[in-house]
Amino acid sequence: MLNVFMLQWKRLIKQPLLVLLFIGLTVLFVYFMGGAQINSTVKIPVYSETLTEAELTDWIERLNKDASIIFEPTDYETAKEDIRMNEIGFALELEEDTYRILAGRQDEQLPVIEQQLNQILTEQFRLEEVRKEFPTSEIEVKDFITLLESQLVETGSAQTQYQLQILVGMAFYFSVYTILFLQISLVEEKRMGTWNRLIFSPISKTKLYLGHLSYYYLVGLVQILLSFYILTNLLGIDLGTNYLPMAAITLAFLFAIVSLGILITALVPSPQSLQVVIPIITTSMAMLSGAFWPLEIVSNRFLLFIAELMPLKHGLQGLIDAILYEPSISELLQPIGILLLMGILFMGSGINLMERVSKT
Fold first, then answer.
1. What's this model's pTM, rounded to 2 decimal places?
2. Do 353 and 222 fall within a single domain?
3. Which of 59, 90, 249, 306 could lock onto 103 through a cystine, CB 3.0 to 4.6 A?
């Protein structure tokens, strides 16, 4: 196993361009997209035709607790004209116990912002109802209001989740690219007959497969760790301290991707075919799994069903949950179990197909 493992690294040292290219792309995308996510703030004009100016100002102060979204006061005519001239995409209308979004065009951030607004305003409306129903300063009422307000602050905002999903999704996306492209060497060995000679050599098949798989696994792990290093140390993005569940999700995800690569390698007849198949599979998987945009904006049930079959979806969602909500490993058994099951199925099918091809 060790000899096979070291042989792969010697090949990488002789021809490092491919891996360096994908690692470089990962660094560039994560760094610049992360910087853009940090520095970008969404400004939303807010107006009301029923609230007084003081009441509207009070609502805006509450809404501006989240620095990622800035709410600015305006009036209906100004908001309508700005939307008509395409200077803004949408505006928020507040009333005493409800709200309405005036949208002029489709915007990828609108579903995320609407989800966050619904969360914030629903809690605030509940607080207002409690204050009106219990105007006295009873201790129980104060405790209840304090509890609701603390929950509102501590809950991870939809905007933060969207930013993490895009950044972590890009890191996972390029790691999939790297792992699958590295496995082109397996297809070349199959075509040249080298793989058959290795199969019938004194080295056991278990050591042969483990030597290759551990190499792909380690390269993917290094690339993801590098991405996380950039996010935390260079961009200052808080990924939390829930390291053990995050590591479990990441390792299970890499196992599923390496196994998927073995299955694809067994099915594809030539390196040229694999070079065509990899971008199609990788990009489609990222689009369906929510690495490019949140799945909340997808309403097609068939596409959502297909997303459940993608390891990237479960790896990405599991890692986001581990970062935002800090669950224990036992609370993440579902995504970890799904990834491990996918990996076992992919690996078993891929090795079985490769063995059949080798015998023929």
1. 0.69
2. yes
3. 90
